[in-house]
DNA sequence: TCGAGATACTTAACATGTTAAGTGACTGCG
DNA sequence: CGCAGTCACTTAACATGTTAAGTATCTCGA
């Protein structure tokens, strides 16, 4: 269906096109990528000062809110793939920011928790992080920010169960 | 076989600790990341069938719309960092999907353009890509999609010139 | 109880993100 | 001219994204 997508008033488009595709810079993936980059650009320098990457920070934050978590659960929470998480946990453990112990009931599972040093590091970064977030919120507008996140959640929902074999159906 | 009623809703350990931070999963960066991943998950398998990564596809699309571009210009258009682009161009050139020649007026500059093979490859992928995009548009709603992209653009704008990147601040 | 299959990670291999340093080519100023 | 500074990339080094294999453990049913 798609009755009629609003015609973008194509302001410039100075160059001739030979391929029938939407203007590349207006694609949804690009919009999302640029927006996210604009946001993360604000946080990265501060995290870097503390020797943390964005992903490492995500893991610490996720762990700070709970007693302990299995690796798979943590991967879901921090939105990281297993292999990435595996590497990062190895590193964080070596830096004594987290602790691990195998679950007694199932030797395959590893319970991960934040260490005292990890908590300390979080405490030293959180204020700056919150300040940056507050600045972003103020600039963009709290209401619009909430609206945006609502829409992002809806987008995620409307695409849930499209690409990945989730239930039954065919594989390929 | 082995039907296995997994336990996703496992009793788990909802132990919460009082930490003075927003709920991690509701942060703007995470919302943007998840939304983008939900979208890209739809495209990646098809691109992979054609031996292309998301970034390689971005470059080909960017090049298809113009005659030729300098590397720096291409990096801006495809939203890639110089080093990434450098590596990808090396690969794409080896696969004869693009062509390069140094500018006559300035030996430092390299002019990049898509090759015949590149155009052919694009033609073979574009239909599926557009179909997927249409499906996403339909599911989420064309109007909402336009709204979302508008907001993403505004977010980007409101953060422009905040990051301590170079540039003497202010505007231009 | 035993073994095929499932599960929970971990490794491997390759591609990109990210920052810093390197290389060759231009530019401006003396 | 000459050469220090800049520019346009490219390399390097390390971290993560992504898919495929590998390893150890656990589960279930014949």
From TrEMBL, chains A, B:
GO terms for molecular function: DNA binding; DNA-binding transcription factor activity. Pfam families: MarR_2. It comes from the Bacteria. InterPro entries: HpaR/FarR, HTH_MarR-typ, MarR/SlyA-like, WH-like_DNA-bd_sf, WH_DNA-bd_sf. One of its GO terms (biological process) is response to stress. Residues 25-157 form the HTH marR-type domain. This is Homoprotocatechuate degradation operon regulator HpaR. It comes from Bradyrhizobium zhengyangense. The lineage of its organism: Bacteria, Pseudomonadati, Pseudomonadota, Alphaproteobacteria, Hyphomicrobiales. The gene is hpaR.
